[in-house]
Design goal:
Blueprint (H helix, E strand, L loop, with lengths): L3 H21 L8 H7 L2 H19 L6 H24 L6 E8 L12 E4 L4 E2 L2 E2 L5 H14 L5 E8 L2 H10 L7 E7 L3 E3 L13 E7 L6 E7 L5 H11 L3 E9 L11 H17 L7 E6 L2 H10 L6 E6 L9 E6 L4
Parallel strand pairs: 1-2, 1-5, 5-6, 9-10, 9-11, 11-12
Antiparallel strand pairs: 3-4, 6-7, 8-10, 12-13
């Protein structure tokens, strides 16, 4: 006689083995993995149905008690219910199709062939340098706005960036939470990784060391200086002094983790960093001042910062001159609001 306990144990072990193997193969499994296995995978569903049919046959032949069928159906329902609840919690975009898109302003030393659509802005640049300064607020902004306006709420978007940090910031600003569009950056981080906070965790808080520096320009603007991949405060102060910018105060945010290219662990970490920074900026009541942003950070963080600073209208962004072709440490890019 077939042991019902053994049958149940084998079925559960089959599911667990399948879950582990699928995860190792890096197929998409969310935290509603049982729902995925039972409903969205035909092989696993067939196994469940086969075991259910076997139980019914054994029950009809009085080999196993009829109530075991109820136990099995109850277990089956728990798995499905948990998955459905999880998908409902994730919201209406949980069933959406993931569409990979790319935004490029750097030369094509690397071309991503896995995207559905690319916005190519390289025509406005000579290598990394803008051909005409007016392009930032006009041609580039308009093309970004048109490209983003084609996105819809039915799809989810993974955004690949081969672009200046200022452009990444503007994409985050244009794809802000008010649009209701599910989008997240694909970050270069030991390869390419999805920085999707909805499917990641980062539990630490109080993530910044904050230093404030007052300059002798009463009634001037504010410089927001962000050091994640490199320490940049000295260079920014030198630039401000050399250019005689009308800046009254510098707010320097340096990540508490080991500063460097691997300082931000995932999308949840990047988004939390952006949230904490924007909360501090809001508490400082900088809304009436122009904010000059200098950043050394991953593009994924800059994307989330653009989203979080959506309520600040007077912003000037700067790019670091890596090759020192402009004669300055930084050069100005977008100046908001765009007229």
């Amino acid at each position: 006689m077939v042991s019902i306990s053994l049958l149940c144990i084998l079925s559960v072990l089959t599911l667990l083995m399948y879950l582990v193997i699928t995860t190792m193969l890096k197929k998409h499994i969310s935290s509603g993995a049982f729902y995925f296995i039972l409903i969205e995978n035909r092989v696993a569903t067939f196994i469940f149905l086969l075991i259910s049919l076997a139980l019914i046959c054994l029950s009809l032949k009085n080999i196993v008690p009829t109530e075991y069928i109820g136990y099995w159906i109850g277990l089956f329902s728990i798995f499905i219910g948990a998955g459905v609840a999880n998908k409902h919690r994730k919201g209406k975009n949980s069933n959406s199709h993931l569409t990979p898109i790319e935004i490029r302003s750097f030369p094509e030393d690397f071309r991503n062939n896995k995207v559905d659509e690319t916005l190519d802005l390289t025509k406005f640049f000579d290598t990394r340098y803008i051909k005409k300064e007016k392009y930032w607020n006009n041609e580039i902004y308009n093309e970004l706005n048109n490209f983003i306006s084609k996105r819809n709420r039915k799809n989810s978007y993974g955004v690949y960036f081969e672009a200046h940090l200022s452009i990444v910031f503007m994409v985050g600003r244009l794809l802000n939470y008010k649009k209701g569009i599910d989008a997240f950056p694909i970050q270069k981080h030991d390869g390419l990784k999805k920085w999707d906070p909805d499917n990641e965790t980062y539990n630490k808080s109080n993530l910044w060391n904050i230093e404030e520096k007052d300059l002798n320009n009463k009634g001037g603007d504010v410089a927001l200086v962000i050091g994640i991949t490199r320490k940049i405060l000295y260079n920014v102060v030198k630039f401000i002094e050399n250019k005689q910018l009308n800046i009254e105060q510098i707010a320097y945010f340096e990540i508490k983790e080991n500063i460097g290219v691997d300082a931000v662990k995932n999308g949840a970490h990047g988004k939390k960093l952006a949230n904490e920074l924007s909360n501090v900026v809001s508490e400082k009541n900088f809304n009436d001042k122009r904010i000059h942003i200098f950043a050394s950070c991953p593009s994924g963080f800059m994307y989330y910062l653009g989203q979080r600073l959506i309520n600040f209208n007077k912003i000037t962004l700067y790019e670091h001159d890596f090759d020192k072709k402009t004669g300055d440490i930084y050069f100005k890019s977008f100046e908001l609001p765009v007229e």
